[in-house]
Amino acid sequence: MEKNTRLILALDVLDSDEAIRISEAVTGHVDAIKVGYPLVLASGLQIIGKLAEYASIIADFKVADIPNTNRLICEQVFDAGADAVIVQGFTGHDSLEICVDLARERNKDIFVVTEMSHPGALDLMQDAGEKIARMAADQKASGVVAPATRPERVKEIRKIIGNELAIISPGVGAQGGSAADTIMAGTDWVIVGRKIYQSDDPAKAAKDIVSEIKDVL
Ligand code: C5P
């Protein structure tokens, strides 16, 4: 994934025509489009290949199973045309390792969730977040997912993983996080969903976030 605008669109719409229209509109303003269960369950896995015409595709399936099942899932998703898959880290080293090995063979990326961006992530996930970040670094995953809603956690996670791994951060806009604060905390890409795809003018919404990011670089 090339680091140009440092913005990733989280495309959680359900209709494939709408997904294509928004992707076309934001081309050039985003470095990648994150596609997850809402769009794929509503439109089918082939939507990944269609959207790959507009940007790199990160498949956010938060894969969290035993190693063999994780590999089967990642194979299907890479075969569908995704450039990267998001996997959960809490399942442990072997479940992660099989995904990272497969991605390496295929020249693709794995991003590992450390902790999530919503309030409930504080109940259980945050305690494990630093250990998961360390595991992702040891296994040389491409990067981790860390919350834009808690820039201080992005800073902590950056200290743990160093500069070899990327950080991608959801939670900007609808969940209250700020693109500028998250970039200043050390994230490489901010992930924005509703603020862009629910806007009357998604291209302008994306462009405004990119200017906010550029202003602090
Ligand atoms: O609409 P909004 O900008 O809040 O979208 C955030 C996106 O990032 C959603 O697709 C959500 O599932 C995802 N996500 C998140 N927190 C994480 C990992 C993924 O909000 N830790």
UniProtKB/TrEMBL annotation:
InterPro entries: Aldolase_TIM, OMPdecase, OMPdecase_arc, OMPdecase_AS, OMPdeCOase_dom, RibuloseP-bd_barrel. One of its GO terms (molecular function) is orotidine-5'-phosphate decarboxylase activity. Substrate binds at residues 12, 34, 60-69, 117, 170-180, 193-194. Residues 6-209 form the Orotidine 5'-phosphate decarboxylase domain. It catalyses: orotidine 5'-phosphate + H(+) = UMP + CO2. Pathway: Pyrimidine metabolism; UMP biosynthesis via de novo pathway; UMP from orotate: step 2/2. GO terms for cellular component: cytosol. The active site is at residues 60, 62, 65. It comes from the Archaea. SUPFAM superfamilies: Ribulose-phoshate binding barrel. Pfam families: OMPdecase. Its EC number is 4.1.1.23. Catalyzes the decarboxylation of orotidine 5'-monophosphate (OMP) to uridine 5'-monophosphate (UMP). This is Orotidine 5'-phosphate decarboxylase. The gene is pyrF.
